[in-house]
Amino acid sequence: MATHDVVIAGGGPAGSMAALILSRAGKKVLVLERTHFPRAKVCGSSLNPRNWSLWQRHGLTERFQRLPHFDIGGFTLKRKGIPILRHSFRKPGARAVERSTLDAWLADEASSSGATFQFGVTVQGLTATHLQTSAGEIEAPLIIGADGRNSAIGRFSHLARPSEPCGRVGWQAFIDLPNLDDHIHMNVFPEGYYGMCKISSTQITTSLVLFAASKATPEQIMARYLPQAAPTAWKCMHPISRKPWDVTNGRCWLTGDAAHVLEPLTGEGIYSALATAEMAARHILSIDRVGVKTAANRYRRQHRRFYGLRMMINALAGWSLTDSRRSMRMMQALRYWPSAAAQMVEWVQGAENPRLQEG
Ligand SMILES: Cc1cc2nc3c(=O)[nH]c(=O)nc-3n(C[C@H](O)[C@H](O)[C@H](O)COP(=O)(O)OP(=O)(O)OC[C@H]3O[C@@H](n4cnc5c(N)ncnc54)[C@H](O)[C@@H]3O)c2cc1C
Fold first, then answer.
1. pTM, rounded to two decimals
2. Which CATH number fits domain 6-68+97-164+243-324: 3.40.630.30, 3.50.50.60, 3.30.420.10, 3.20.20.70?
3. Res 260 pLDDT > 50
């Protein structure tokens, strides 16, 4: 008998959400997380309103509301620092919560539901029966890969495609800038783009994506567009985008960024990580009833549909922003169609896809 029914690699939003659902359903769950929480994560930290339905479904709304946060009221888009759109969200609910706070809270919720967390343990390999980790071998009959965009589980299980070169690099820093309003501010320029929003009354979080070929540094971009800001240390992330992978082989189930990396600009990554973890957990719980093959097929289908239906804007944004000249032209065009741009922003902010609930 294995000590744990499910072993989860990665304790980010996807890993903790899956752990919470499975342990509440009576499964013995072990989460292996290579860092120690609270830990920083390269992320804009903005949560769109669709996340509320997830908190509600799992009885987490009240405790989420108590986390330190900043409410986001709209979206301002600039091209080379010149505003081309200023849009106030039609509905409230968008919120910035620092990732170290959000992820530590979710891990606490999962622990309180019965999941065991081992921090500082890195998954290093996979055999037919065990996971090889920095703390030794662990029996693992069923595995969730929630270990982010460079997923080790994806590679070891061969669910991942061989990695392709990505010409963009992501950066993140916290900056003291008390005068910023309550909008997400995005600026697209020839070397890439950045998004920033307030995270507290004095601090903002800035996510910057740069074309590697441009050789520009975060300091140069900030000196050009935000000379008054003195950022603290920049944290780096690579790759920014990646082709989607197969999501399960019946034993390993990929969730969140491990399965599908989204364009960071639209701020949908955290929601998608939580939502796909919820899906995977539900299908894993159905294995006793429908068998592993059917459960896996259903997860594959639902996962595809989730990204297919919801992510058209994300795909368009990704296409626009992977090439310097194209991104400049798209921003130029949006100057003449501010209402189309505003509509896209509302779609991204919009209600949860009801088909997410279907099995
Ligand atoms: C520049 C940038 C800005 C972004 N801004 C936003 C935003 O504003 N809003 C938004 O919703 N999304 C944003 N995203 C996307 C968002 O950060 C991700 O989609 C989200 O973090 C995915 O969650 P996850 O749980 O799948 O993976 P992660 O959050 O990456 O968590 C994976 C966890 O696995 C652990 N891990 C990795 N490898 C191993 C291993 N071998 N063994 C054990 N543990 C391991 C890691 O330490 C980590 O804690 C942004 C992304 C970037 C790059």
1. 0.91
2. 3.50.50.60
3. yes
